[in-house]
Amino acid sequence: MAETTLSKSTQTTRIAIIGNPNVGKSTIFNYLTGLNQKIGNYPGVTVDKKTGFFHHNGEHFEILDLPGTYSLFPNSEDEIIAHRVLNNTHLETRPDYVLMVIDSTQLSRGLFLATQLIDLGINLAIVLNMADIAEKKSIEIRTFELFKNLGVPILQTDARNQKGLDQIKNLISQRNFTQAPTFLNILEVIPEGLLKQVRDKFDLENNYQAYQMIRFGAKDKAILEAVRIWLQQLCQTEKFNLEEAQLEETKIRYAKITDLVNKSLFKKTAPKPKSNLDRLFLHSVGGYLVFLAILLIIFQAIFSWASYPMDWIDGFFADLGGWIQSSLPDGPLTRLLAEGVIPGIGGVVIFIPQIALLFGFLAILEDTGYMSRVVFLMDRWMRPFGLHGKSIVPLVSGVACAIPGVMAARNISNWKEKMITILVTPLMSCSARLPVYIILIGLTVPDETVAGFVNLQALALLGLYLLGILGVLATSFILKSILKTDEKSFLMTELPSYRIPRWGDVGITMVEKSKTFVLEAGKVILAISIVLWVLASYGPPARMDEIRSQGEARLENVLEEEQIAEIEAETSAKLLENSFIGIMGRAIEPVIKPLGYDWKIGIALITSFAAREVFISTMATIYSIGGDVEDDLTIREKLDQQINANTGEKTFNKATAFSLMVFYVFAMQCMSTLAVVKRETKSWKWPLIQTIYMSGLAYLMAFITFQIFS
Amino acid sequence: MRLGDSRPMTADQLPLNHSGKILEILPSPLKINLMELGFLPGKYLTLHHKAPSGGPLAFQMDETLLALRSKEAALIRIELI
Fold this sequence. Notes:
CATH architecture of chain B: Roll
CATH topology of chain B: SH3 type barrels
Number of helices of chain A: 31
Mean pLDDT of chain B: 89
CATH topology of the domain at 13-174 in chain A: Rossmann fold
Order of helices and strands of chain B: EEHEEEHE
Strand content of chain A: 5-15%
Number of domains of chain B: 1
CATH class of chain B: Mainly Beta
Largest sheet of chain A: 8 strands, mixed
Radius of gyration of chain A: 30 Å
Largest sheet of chain B: 6 strands, antiparallel
Low-confidence stretches of chain A: 1-10, 626-630
Shape of chain B: globular
Oligomer: heterodimer
């Protein structure tokens, strides 16, 4: 009894895909929609709304990929979304049809959710996926028996190997979904009088919907407060114990499912033996060594592979800026475009190789089933700091770049653990800090070997990384007692069987994550870079004009190219000194003096708020190094000659350089991270708190460092 | 714990590589989560892995390997088999 109603508002038919975690939902979603996907937001929550489109015989279908869930009773933000979409809570539009994906080897667990959907009165079809694994495990499912008892269409597929997927397309285009008769009579659990009152008040179609309404009435903030209070009072007057009812429902439902599974499933297997891979990967010592080795390989790959495309991107945007400057008539607009907008966009695009690669690796680890093993191994070491086993992924990613790290934190379902993870991840020393560390270490730490093999410079670098990790742990520990949540922290996770990754899905993840970053964080980054450019290029007009004409006057008398370059470099240094940012740098000098910095370093601190590596290029401009700023040695020699006007000593003595390095270990100094934190927490509150905290911590630690070494 | 001893215990006390039959899930806010995952009276589970230093436990139940923290496993009353 296929239904053919189209949704009233448009000609597009809306279909939601739902299922337990790790059942191949995303593969089916990717197969149907390809790259024709869109990531949006659900109002009020941080969960991404994944929709996609596919066309068949001139008809349009909108596919909604719901977050994986075990039941309609939500434990996390992810799961509450499924509930809202299916129950038509006024903020969401209910889909016309629902496609339920079940792992064939986990039939009972899948049917638990499927029969709840049936009871809600949803137009449903079931896909029994992972037929290949079921076959390997000698599990045979009699689909006809299931169909007879459930009353909804059932398909068998093996999405990983692309088998049976065309059947799904046919099923959708024929709208072969069914509203089946109720599976479990909820009246066994809840008195009819109560349900009737709720049904009448909200004009609901059936008792199970009424039951859902009661369940969520008290919890879901998307429901009006008056309604919530009405529902709570109703439960009180009727002396209805919701928790008891849920447990009872679960028990009865599982009992009925077990009967059904006994009838429809043949299994010839003995109890599953321990996997040999797990003997190694979950080993008390070997497991950690393997994890460490995998990390080393990933970082090696990210640092060596990503640097090529990053250099190309860097070069391309530099050339583009130069081309615009030389081919368009000179003026404020051209300069804004060439020096503000283009480098701003370049500053966003430059992160794509790292983000894409890191998410590629994470997708592979996730898809093979290895990631949940890491969670298993690390949970115990994360918990004392208010973190979850799942926090290890963002933290480790943070060593490459905090941006994908913060984005990866969304897999953590507990709000408090997720927030702590997001807030501390930028304290891990990322790759953008490396150039700053290297120049300053080269300047002040002798290239000597102690104790036979330990290089002092390497030791200093290691010290900075460890300092960052210490910052992460200490901050987490503090946040643990500050942040409050009612959610109970738990780790109940499946350790799925090992599998070969689905390369297509890995590719789509890489594209989608990069796209999300560019589109969502890119806007903020672009805006801040333009503001910073304006501040660095403009100053009090009279003063700026004077410097320019002085520079031109000096140029008139010289012919040698070397001298010309020198004068031009000096002029641009003077211009920067007198720009608004220069004025700001001077203004903050009293504040940063206790850290051992002069106003020139102050300017670099302000400009490098955009991104830490900007510190180097600003230093190059301000000390009028000119020429090739990429050459570390030139910068280093030049910096080494600088004299601090306040003290008459070398500007970059040990105390100042150490203090600066420590400052960069802790300071936020990355607007891209800021933009991503804003995106992930859906508010400016957290990125602001984070910036204030990190800057404060950086100041304090840099102060202490300076005092120790001076 | 001696083999063949059928005193009731909770799943976190199960010795490594031993199996038990679930008797009941003790009351707790997490009871519903455990039941939804398939931890139901009458099912058999085997402790396959223990993370070091009191970390999570991995139980094989039917076709699935499931990880729980020990305080969650302590909610599952079993008899050793």
